[in-house]
Amino acid sequence: MTRTLDYALASGELGNLPAAFRPRFGAVLRAVATAMEEIGQVSPTDPDLLDAKIDEAAAELDRVQQQERTTPEASPAVHALQGTLLTDVGRLLADLRSGRQSLAKT
User: Fold this and answer.
1) Pairwise CA distance, residues 66 & 62, whole Å
2) For residues 13 and 73, is the Cβ–Cβ distance under 8 A?
3) pTM of this prediction?
């Protein structure tokens, strides 16, 4: 994700993202960060709480993806950037969920 953002910033594409996309994408990132904060606590991670936080982040991602499908078409480059950023977040959530499931097996 950081590689995508670095490229978008360096190429100027980041500034071409629709104004409405940025806060929605930020909300997804905040939801993911909230889930990740559960892992970084000093006390043991509550698996049910972590699952709930991951589910909340996934639901936020789904909302943004739905909104992006119903907004007017952007340029192909902007559409590709949005899709890449959303895919990156989806992969991060999949990694969190997979890591959570691996921990449950040990």
Assistant:
1) 6
2) no
3) 0.84
